[in-house]
Amino acid sequence: MHVTIKDVAKLAGVSPSTVSRVIADNPKISDATKKNVYKAMDELNYHPNAIARSLANKSTKILGLILPSTEEDIFKNPFFIQVMTGVSHYAQKNGYYILYTYATSEDEELEHLKKLMFSRWVDGIILTTIRKDDKCIQYLKENQYPFVVVGKPESTDGILWVDNDNFHAMYTVVNQLIQKGHRKIGFIGGPHVLNVTMNRLDGYLRAIENSGIQVDEKLIMRKEFTEEGGYEAMKHILAYDHPSAIVTTDDLIAFGALKALREEEIDDISVIGFNNTPLAAYQHPTLSSVDINAEKLGSFAARLLIKHLEKKDDGINSYIIDTKLVERESSEKKK
């Protein structure tokens, strides 16, 4: 059955003209009405592709960047600052500007995305987080709206994306630790719904298994990408055992793990971070960390999207950005 704007209006209990104004993000329409109309559109699987295409043809020279946190929390994680810097530098060189928005959940991210899509504010969207069965990617694809993703989607068909080889990066780190004599290595990652966590966990598991070491599930913890999450996970692991090394999927997690070790006065556990944020060199002890070139990730994401918007596609839909382990004091410990 072909769903029309009248069907949406009937389900939402508003007039068709109100639905049109919601799609155009008319400021005179209340947030409650907009939410109600968006809900009706979702229930009826209504996608105003014609409107989306007409809006896309009216260039604003602005890119929408969606960040997965509150405005306050974003500035606690240097990764997003570095990505934003890379995006901004490339965009401005090419005559584009950035509109930032923040979301604390996937549903809120989808709501913001819809507002950007059906407004005249942006020409395309940059997503900085990918989840399993990601709703935002699905919605953007269904509506044929220009976007790029920082991270590798589960299905890359028809999607612009830029990422590191997270599997290989973590595999290399764990393998190096094993070669140094470590046999009991723990893992602290972010939420399991995030693709980056699963890719790095897969690299950890493969390195452990290929070395003939038994995987201990109790040494594997997944928390939020925060210092508090790393602290809690490290405390939990220490209550169970005393590993010789811990690999993490983010420097903030590693900072929390180091804090827990300092409290327990433990100095014989190596900790490895990811992102090589500036504060890694100022930890006590200093933190070894994988440099993922976050600013370059942002720059190449903007590059892919702008080339697509300007119809200068050259057949390249993705970029893999190199990583490098920056070794400092903590990785030199031996079991």
TrEMBL record:
GO molecular function, one term: DNA-binding transcription factor activity
Domain HTH lacI-type per the UniProt entry, residue ranges: 3-57
InterPro entries: HTH_LacI (IPR000843), LacI/GalR-like_sensor (IPR046335), Lambda_DNA-bd_dom_sf (IPR010982), Peripla_BP_I (IPR028082)
Cited Pfam families: LacI, Peripla_BP_3
SUPFAM superfamilies in UniProt: lambda repressor-like DNA-binding domains, Periplasmic binding protein-like I
UniProt key word DNA-binding: yes
Alphabetical list of PROSITE patterns matching this protein: HTH_LACI_1, HTH_LACI_2
Keyword Transcription regulation annotated: yes
Keyword set, alphabetical order: DNA-binding, Transcription, Transcription regulation
PANTHER family: HTH-TYPE TRANSCRIPTIONAL REGULATOR GALS (PTHR30146:SF109), LACI-RELATED TRANSCRIPTIONAL REPRESSOR (PTHR30146)
Protein name as annotated: LacI family DNA-binding transcriptional regulator
